[in-house]
Amino acid sequence: MAITQLARYKERMEAIENVFSWYGELLKDDDLVRLERNFVKPHEFPLYVNAFCENRNSLFEFLFQKGIEARPMNPPLHTAAYFGAQAGTFENAARLGSSMIGLPCGPDIQYEEVKQVVSAIDAWRAAQA
Q1: What is the distance between the alpha carbons of residues 111 and 26, in angstroms, rounded to a whole number?
Q2: Total structural domains within the chain
């Protein structure tokens, strides 16, 4: 199975790049939701499509109610109990950990599905006004 997937490497990379581009063209940044764009360099591809949202839990719940599987970013490692839960030690990690949400992505997602996710985010934005 792995060799079969390696044979499709270039095709799958292009598909993931397309998904990231679709989100980039469809999802307009504002004060409520902003796509993470700066980490992708030439000849790299994103493993995840992440967005910043200060009210992430509300957006996550809204998307869940619409049947859209998003994922909150994992809590920062420094907050783990086995590290002594050093809250406040790494402010940027804590801020990102509480405000980032992973949007549906992957090489098999279609343009219409990305449009559906962005439409749901736009509906959530409208409900916040």
Answers
A1: 10
A2: 1
Q: How confident is the model at residue 43 (pLDDT cuts 50, 70, 90)?
A: low
pLDDT digits (tens, 9 = 90+) for 56-76: 999 999 999 999 999 998 888
Extract the tokens encoding 64.
């869940």
* CATH number for the domain that contains residue 86: 3.90.1150.10
Cα separation of 46 and 50, whole Å? 9
Dump pLDDT digits (tens) for 81-117: 777 766 667 778 888 888 999 999 988 899 999 999 9
- Give the chain as a DSSP string: -HHHHHHTHHHHHHHHHHHHHHHHHH----SS-EE--TTPPTT---SSEEEE-TTHHHHHHHHHHTT---EEPPPPGGGSGGGT--TTSSHHHHHHHHHEEEEP--TT--HHHHHHHHHHHHHHHHHH-
Stated pTM of the model:
0.83
Token match 């598909």: residue?
15
Domain residues for 16? 2-128
